[in-house]
């Protein structure tokens, strides 16, 4: 099979640069290989964390599938920062920027090496949206392979995952866990390879990118260590060959309707707030008009029906037994909640892919609720506006914690102060914890607040306090939380002006975030406000601060 699509480079490259061909002979290609399509395989593998530790191995299977289908597969690497490692420390500032570095690096290699197609092997929160941004920019045949969810850990008969470790810390502060049990939880929470096991950010992005048609069916449902994951990697070659032959490109798949399908799955399954940020950014890369208002519209029409962690009971590994994400998609398609006519990487539409998928069995399985008796009648992600968030904020409210909270501000200038105040017992029921200076520029990098939210939960305050921030929340966060407050404190947003004792209303029914301080008083406070200068004067975070857009625009860096 010769190079088949409009990016075919073989002859042109030779005319302009004979060294390129010479170099390909040097890496082991044969005369016959020279006329084959070249597929870049972007691995985000990395030994240092469980989300990405197995991805280099999966990439080798992907390469095998590519070679078996008459193409040349060439593995290259990009980075994979794990939020399991960065949460609660300064490393978190580098996490969201890594998404854009991943996007840039895949775009860079594929453009520079003129690959006919690209396959990204991804397994953690940022490498999935980063890869999606890259393939949208490149718009040449491309697909994603998800590394798969982790299995649950076990300690004293209880199932554990990464969030258990953070919540154990809160129990330690509250004095409700022994040292032995604390260490038992930490040692057993993470049993091996795979992405964090609840409907946290990685599984949220994996499920929704499958719903977008960018992976083979069931990619998000096979755990990392399941045999099906290897089979998926091997099957990718035939799918790529078909895409090349039909010249199916990402923007044929990443349409406005496909973004709606992706966010519908996020809402139905109780996914992470980070999906809002990422799909705004991916849509921007794909040239698709998709805004916070569109996300709110999807939330309004989509019931929360997935009883999955962090607010629910089940883990992603449980989904496979009930038919996986395809079974859920088929149900949503029947109910008219997703579009069936969107193209996918199989060369078939969503509806065609789902035609032979068995229906969900509501007698047997309890993970997905019937739409007629949902966990919450509308989506758990709500976009709030008000004098505290004139540019918008994103609330994650499943209804279990109520839909309205009125309380008194307890201001934390940084995430670390929450832990300090908790240790001193200064956070009380009725407080709205305001964590500021954690936005895209002020953080910088809009850190996730998993450590404070888990510590609050662990301290038994989950039902009696709320939290708002210009930072983000981990997909593992649950409780009454509002993030992405825009404008951020660094830019002089109202969140910078809040004082201890101010009254705050969070209303997820009328979608309001209100600081009950008069305009006159706010004007006085604003006149006295001074921007805190950033300590980052060079390097990657300096570049990020200079380029990043607001959370309401997806924190993109290439506008
Ligand atoms: Fe990588 Fe959770 S930190 S998937």
From TrEMBL:
<dbReference type="InterPro" id="IPR000581">
    <property type="entry name" value="ILV_EDD_N"/>
</dbReference>
<feature type="modified residue" description="N6-carboxylysine">
    <location>
        <position position="126"/>
    </location>
</feature>
<dbReference type="Pfam" id="PF00920">
    <property type="entry name" value="ILVD_EDD_N"/>
</dbReference>
<comment type="function">
    <text>Functions in the biosynthesis of branched-chain amino acids. Catalyzes the dehydration of (2R,3R)-2,3-dihydroxy-3-methylpentanoate (2,3-dihydroxy-3-methylvalerate) into 2-oxo-3-methylpentanoate (2-oxo-3-methylvalerate) and of (2R)-2,3-dihydroxy-3-methylbutanoate (2,3-dihydroxyisovalerate) into 2-oxo-3-methylbutanoate (2-oxoisovalerate), the penultimate precursor to L-isoleucine and L-valine, respectively.</text>
</comment>
<comment type="similarity">
    <text>Belongs to the IlvD/Edd family.</text>
</comment>
<comment type="pathway">
    <text>Amino-acid biosynthesis; L-isoleucine biosynthesis; L-isoleucine from 2-oxobutanoate: step 3/4.</text>
</comment>
<comment type="subunit">
    <text>Homodimer.</text>
</comment>
<dbReference type="InterPro" id="IPR056740">
    <property type="entry name" value="ILV_EDD_C"/>
</dbReference>
<keyword id="KW-0411">Iron-sulfur</keyword>
<dbReference type="InterPro" id="IPR050165">
    <property type="entry name" value="DHAD_IlvD/Edd"/>
</dbReference>
<keyword id="KW-0456">Lyase</keyword>
<keyword id="KW-0460">Magnesium</keyword>
<feature type="domain" description="Dihydroxy-acid/6-phosphogluconate dehydratase N-terminal">
    <location>
        <begin position="36"/>
        <end position="353"/>
    </location>
</feature>
<dbReference type="InterPro" id="IPR004404">
    <property type="entry name" value="DihydroxyA_deHydtase"/>
</dbReference>
<keyword id="KW-0408">Iron</keyword>
<dbReference type="InterPro" id="IPR042096">
    <property type="entry name" value="Dihydro-acid_dehy_C"/>
</dbReference>
<feature type="binding site">
    <location>
        <position position="125"/>
    </location>
    <ligand>
        <name>Mg(2+)</name>
    </ligand>
</feature>
<keyword id="KW-0479">Metal-binding</keyword>
<keyword id="KW-0001">2Fe-2S</keyword>
<feature type="binding site" description="via carbamate group">
    <location>
        <position position="126"/>
    </location>
    <ligand>
        <name>Mg(2+)</name>
    </ligand>
</feature>
<feature type="binding site">
    <location>
        <position position="83"/>
    </location>
    <ligand>
        <name>Mg(2+)</name>
    </ligand>
</feature>
<keyword id="KW-0028">Amino-acid biosynthesis</keyword>
<protein>
    <recommendedName>
        <fullName>Dihydroxy-acid dehydratase</fullName>
        <ecNumber>4.2.1.9</ecNumber>
    </recommendedName>
</protein>
<dbReference type="Pfam" id="PF24877">
    <property type="entry name" value="ILV_EDD_C"/>
</dbReference>
<comment type="pathway">
    <text>Amino-acid biosynthesis; L-valine biosynthesis; L-valine from pyruvate: step 3/4.</text>
</comment>
<feature type="domain" description="Dihydroxy-acid/6-phosphogluconate dehydratase C-terminal">
    <location>
        <begin position="366"/>
        <end position="555"/>
    </location>
</feature>
<keyword id="KW-0100">Branched-chain amino acid biosynthesis</keyword>
<dbReference type="InterPro" id="IPR037237">
    <property type="entry name" value="IlvD/EDD_N"/>
</dbReference>
<feature type="binding site">
    <location>
        <position position="448"/>
    </location>
    <ligand>
        <name>Mg(2+)</name>
    </ligand>
</feature>
<dbReference type="InterPro" id="IPR020558">
    <property type="entry name" value="DiOHA_6PGluconate_deHydtase_CS"/>
</dbReference>
<feature type="binding site">
    <location>
        <position position="51"/>
    </location>
    <ligand>
        <name>[2Fe-2S] cluster</name>
    </ligand>
</feature>
<feature type="active site" description="Proton acceptor">
    <location>
        <position position="474"/>
    </location>
</feature>
């Amino acid at each position: 099979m010769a190079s088949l699509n409009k990016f075919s480079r073989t002859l042109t490259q030779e005319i302009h640069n004979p060294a390129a061909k010479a170099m390909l002979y040097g890496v082991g290609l044969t005369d016959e290989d020279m006329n084959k399509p070249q597929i870049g395989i972007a691995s985000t593998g990395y030994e240092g964390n469980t989300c990405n530790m197995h991805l280099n191995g999966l990439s080798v299977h992907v390469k095998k599938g590519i070679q078996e289908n008459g193409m040349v597969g060439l593995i290259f690497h990009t980075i994979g920062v794990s939020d399991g490692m960065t949460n609660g420390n300064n490393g978190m500032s580098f996490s969201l920027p890594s998404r854009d570095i991943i996007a840039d690096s895949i775009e860079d290699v594929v453009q520079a090496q003129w690959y006919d197609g690209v396959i990204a092997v991804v397994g953690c929160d940022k490498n999935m949206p980063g890869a999606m941004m890259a393939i949208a920019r490149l718009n040449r045949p491309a697909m994603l392979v998800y590394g798969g969810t982790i299995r649950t850990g076990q300690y004293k008969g209880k199932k554990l995952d990464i969030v258990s470790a953070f919540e154990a810390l809160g129990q330690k502060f509250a004095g409700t866990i022994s040292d032995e049990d604390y260490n038992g939880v930490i040692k057993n929470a993470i049993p091996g390879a795979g992405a964090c096991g609840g409907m946290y950010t990685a599984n949220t992005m994996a499920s929704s990118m499958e719903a977008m048609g960018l992976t083979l069916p069931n990619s998000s449902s096979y755990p990392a260590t399941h045999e099906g994951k290897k089979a998926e990697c091997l099957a990718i070659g035939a799918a790529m060959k078909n895409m090349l032959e039909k010249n199916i490109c990402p923007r044929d798949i990443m349409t406005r309707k496909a973004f709606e399908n992706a966010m519908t799955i996020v809402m139905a399954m109780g996914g992470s707030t980070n999906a809002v940020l990422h799909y705004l950014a991916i849509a921007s890369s794909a040239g698709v008009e998709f805004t916070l208002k569109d996300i709110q519209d999807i939330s309004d029409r989509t019931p929360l029906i997935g009883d999955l962690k962090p607010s629910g009971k089940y883990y992603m590994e449980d989904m496979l037994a009930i038919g996986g994400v395809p079974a859920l998609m088929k149900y949503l398609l029947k109910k008219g909640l997703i579009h069936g006519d969107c193209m996918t990487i199989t060369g078939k539409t969503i509806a065609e892919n789902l035609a032979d998928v068995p229906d969900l069995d509501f007698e047997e399985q309890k993970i997905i609720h019937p739409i007629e008796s949902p966990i919450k009648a509308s989506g758990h992600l709500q976009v709030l506006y008000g004098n505290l968030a004139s540019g918008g904020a994103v609330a994650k409210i499943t209804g279990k914690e109520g839909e309205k909270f009125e309380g008194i501000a307890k201001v934390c200038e940084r995430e670390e102060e929450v832990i300090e105040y908790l240790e001193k017992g200064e956070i009380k029921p009725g407080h709205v914890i305001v964590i500021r200076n954690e936005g895209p520029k002020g953080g910088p990098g809009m850190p996730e607040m998993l450590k404070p939210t888990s510590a609050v939960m662990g301290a038994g305050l989950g039902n009696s306090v709320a939290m708002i921030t210009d930072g983000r929340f981990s997909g593992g966060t649950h409780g009454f939380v509002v993030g992405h407050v825009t404008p951020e404190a660094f830019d002089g947003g109202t969140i910078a002006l809040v004082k201890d004792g101010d009254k705050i209303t969070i209303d997820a029914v009328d979608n309001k975030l209100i600081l009950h301080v008069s305009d006159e008083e706010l004007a006085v406070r604003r006149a006295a406000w001074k921007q805190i200068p950033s300590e980052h004067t060079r390097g990657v975070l300096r570049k990020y601060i200079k380029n990043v857009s607001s959370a309401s625009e997806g924190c993109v860096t290439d506008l």
